[in-house]
Amino acid sequence: MINLLWGDPLPPTRGPKPAMTVEGITGAAIALADTDGLDAVSMQRVAAALSFTKMALYRYVPGKAELVALMTDVAMGLPPDRPRRPWREALMTWALDLYAAFEKHPWLLLSTVGRRELGPNELTWMDHGVRALTESGLNGGQQLDAVLTVVGHVRTVAQQSLSMPGGSTGVTEEHITSALSEVLATQSERFPGLAVAMRSIDGQQNKGLTFGLDVILDGLEVLIKRG
Amino acid sequence: MINLLWGDPLPPTRGPKPAMTVEGITGAAIALADTDGLDAVSMQRVAAALSFTKMALYRYVPGKAELVALMTDVAMGLPPDRPRRPWREALMTWALDLYAAFEKHPWLLLSTVGRRELGPNELTWMDHGVRALTESGLNGGQQLDAVLTVVGHVRTVAQQSLSMPGGSTGVTEEHITSALSEVLATQSERFPGLAVAMRSIDGQQNKGLTFGLDVILDGLEVLIKRG
DNA sequence: CGATAATTGTGTCCACCGGACACGGTTTCA
DNA sequence: TGAAACCGTGTCCGGTGGACACAATTATCG
């Protein structure tokens, strides 16, 4: 399976020509997930989208888990190339690029939970994130932890701002606030903190993303300047 | 279903006495998830644990999604009561408490992804988090965003440090580093940033959690002091 | 007291899921 | 010209969530 993630090794020569490709299967599965969500991705449906039997897929992919891993790495893609910049701007645009990737394929939030095999594209993302901090003065562990903190925040905001199936347009806190106000209408005395916080809210676009990023980067700056 | 989350309303009077309770079902499901993971929670297995047929559960719970929502809110529990303290210490211990909750029921990381119905316990967690910041000078939206950033980081670290089925003992970066070093052994030139970062790592316990929290709180402090 | 209506747990059935396996057709190599 | 390798298909299995009809149980009403 690692072999699949890192490029298919040997096209055999003996039998009939394969009628499909791993790339085609992965692409069909991604298209399916993009339109109908990750739950709609089943072997049957992927095969049907390619006009084949589901069992034919197992000639190219060991199982569903590996297919999802392939989908994930391909859909993640490579981080866009950005010019060298000071660590803060570099990490900020890197985070926004990552958010854009989640925005393009919201199901990535589901397929990247839990322990899993990391593909080359995902590793490249991590590499670029870490490299934004190479000249910051932080040591290796700090760099990794810092990137982890940023990706965690991006994930959280994306997860809460992107409706799972198709929706995207980042209306950040839209749902949570509406769900909250619904509850607080009758239970406001039970959640006093939330109640007063909700009253002084300014419905700004994508605020949660940049707010948290600014906070994290400010914190990193403190750490870096402290030396 | 909301009714279920917020307390069962009316025990009817006509037919035979119910032989189970929603609490019992939820408890059995939680126990099952604690030992064998969330994937092991099926209607059949939950019913079998209570020596009943799976269809009997549907008299108490509308469906599996609602059962998982119940499990989630119950397992989350209420945040421990802590004495009033300045916002920074309050938020820090709140975050550590939240991490402990995820440590106790690792499957919460899976059951709390995507759009879902928020239960009273989960809302209480949010309320306590926000209330830690009431005297910080931040406005309501900022308070919510700040708490969201913290929970995002806690989730990320927990997710990567807790092995899904049963394991717990927070050996934070253990897996990611081992998986990374495995790849970097042969592909180090392809991920130069990761390669050098891995070389200067100090295998400290649970470092990722406190590191990120310190960074976030430092950033909040900057924002607050700026006024 | 007896009939009725409501509610319980069960049994049966369905579509769908991931996957094991055997089979016949196709292609290349010895 | 076999023989060996590989492809796509069909069949089968255990498991999933859930709809539905059914007999048994219980409280209420006449």
How would you describe this protein?
2 copies of one chain form a homodimer. Chain A is mainly alpha-helical and 227 residues long. The first copy, chain A, is 62% helix and 0% strand. The first copy, chain A, has helices at residues 2-5, 22-36, 43-49, 54-57, 64-76, 87-104, 108-111, 120-131, 140-161, 174-187, 192-199, 207-226. In chain A, helix 2 crosses helix 3 and helix 6 packs parallel to helix 9 (140-161). The termini of chain A are far apart. The interface between A and B is large, with 70 and 70 residues. Chain A binds a DNA duplex (30 and 30 nucleotides) through helix 4.
Proportion of residues in extended strands of chain A: under 5%
Mean pLDDT of chain A: 89
Distance between the termini of chain A: 43 Å
- Based on Cα principal axes, name the global outline of chain A: flat
Helix content of chain A: 55-70%
Q: How many β-strands of chain A, per DSSP? A: 0
Order of helices and strands of chain A: HHHHHHHHHHHH
Low-confidence stretches of chain A: 164-172
Number of separate helices of chain A = 12
| Largest sheet report of chain A | none
**Rg of chain A:** 21 Å
Q: Kindly name the structural category of chain A.
A: mainly alpha
Oligomer: homodimer
Q: Give the largest interface.
A: A-B, 70 and 70 residues
